[in-house]
Amino acid sequence: MSQTKQVKQLDRVIIRFAGDSGDGMQLTGDRFTQESAVFGNDLVTLPNFPAEIRAPQGTIPGVSSFQIHFADHDILTAGDRPDVLVAMNPAALKANLADLPKGATIIVDSHDFTKRNLDKAGYATNPLDKLGEVDDPLAGFQVQPVDLTGITVAAVAEFGLSRKDAARAKNMFALGLLSWMYGRPTEPTIAFLERKFSKVADILGANIAAFKAGWNYGETTETFVVQYEIKPAKMRSGTYRNITGNLALSYGLVAAGVRSKLPVFLGSYPITPASDILHELSKHKGFGVTTLQAEDEIAGIGAAIGAAFAGSLGVTTTSGPGIALKSEAIGLAVMTELPLVVINVQRGGPSTGLPTKTEQADLLQAMYGRNGEAPVPIVAPQSPGDCFAAAVEAARIAITYRTPVFLLSDGYLANGSEPWEIPDVADLPLIDANFATETNHASAKSTDGQPDEFWPYLRDEDTLARPWAIPGTPGLEHRIGGLEKGEGHGNISYDSANHDRMVRIRQEKVDRIADSLPPLEIDDPSGKAKVLVIGWGSTYGPIGAACRRVRRAGHNVAQVHLRHLNPFPKDLGTILKSYDKVLVPEMNLGQLSKMLRAEYLVDAIGYNHVYGLPLKAAELAEAVGALVGQAEGRDVDLGEHGLNPPADHEEAPVK
Fold first, then answer.
1. For residue 210, which phi and psi values (nearest 5 degrees)?
2. Inter-residue contact 592 to 561 (CB < 8 Å)
3. I need a labelling partner for 290 at 20 to 30 A (CA). Which of 65, 96, 467, 612 fits?
4. Residue 641 binned pLDDT confidence (cut-offs 50, 70, 90)
């Protein structure tokens, strides 16, 4: 006799899909994300996959996972600890078990718990055989073994696929089951499958059948008696879409081209995790975007510099290893003073390091990784959606001040996603390329004192930008290169005093960018905080979530997040000195901490993890709480709001 299904209200949930790198976990997670976005939840995702194209099947190094945190309120991170783990094989279970809190739900494909797979994962015995026994290794978890593979193969039998091909649809069965459990709309996934497999009828039919079978299994089986409901989040009125950081960056570059009325040229060499920007921009020729997949990193940036010289917005994309190769050319762009956006989607290093893991350890490389005095402005987005605005801002600085600009994203932002409010193009800043069209200097030969020569290194009084003349403009022929320029006229100069002058001008030009920056936003609700937590880039989410937990426990803490890292905003020094203690969480060994100490002589305290994963909000909250206790001269106990926060509104702001 079938049990009556219960519906339980939740305000948030964290789900992790995990399996072999060939099990389609990224696709499954992406489809669940799209369903949640359509439903109207706030969400943040964390894809995590091996660097190898095809790691050994069934092994722990080959495990691929996708985590989604979705809620009925404003959230900031993909979550520290999953409430639900869907494990497709023993390796996926073993690799992720330590991340689960007690009481978490584990759904496993019992079909794949064979001796061969257990041996590969390092299990001496099958943990599913000991469920409920005294020595149950999964005691404390709600374990639901389901023969995902077997049921899927039976569900798609009518399509005549081989058993191997039929079994590949088990990820759609899992997606259907989880979609039922959490009341996700099914129409978006079915429409997606119809588009993706429109030319392969059997594969299309099998995937849809597997998806529906998963849904029906949840609806009819007595194994799952509770269905969960997470209501839509309340968001500001507007049009939203789910977006990844790399996609937002691409759209931001297109928008910058539109608002500056410049063609966009991307010179790039594919590298994880930046390649998607090249893939996306190649689709937008209709917006005046030209993409070149160069033969190497140096050729990519060389072409972008050439395009900038010719009057385009030059862009090059890469990760840390590519920046090392491009460093000489970036110095050339500094010397020639051409607008160039250099996008570094940071990953674990050094060398080739951890290609698919996240890190933010290239800040000092961006600041100082060139020979000579070669200052370059640095901009960093704080979330996947914010990559759009950061790209527009980087282009604004590059064009306005005639300089290469670093945009430091990272793997977490690049592949993670969140709801993004689509802006009105008319609300984006206009960017004036202000091309030179006339001569600007009167030579000794001028009979009336009127300009009859073009000097490519004369300066704008406000920005110190040099004029940008498109080659071929009559009367504005000029020469640029990597050798030092004579002030104003731009001819090669080896004069020592001139070199000192030009070095200082190039530095002053970058410093003046601070004049155009808005005041920093200080998140200090009580106005009584003695501790300031300051960060940059993708640490925004974990820092914000940690500060919310500390405040919910009844303590005061302030947060500031930096978009501009060179130059710093003008009010940063005053803000830092307004607090007794300053904590700087980073996914490196303290690079921003060093810069703040050097610039402002403050005792910046580092909180540094380099795990290849985002910072955990709960652990960071404990560190923030400890520092608050020191500043206030008392012990701070975060209790249930620290490592084990309550399920309700874990990350919601204090009202």
1. -65, -40
2. no
3. 467
4. low
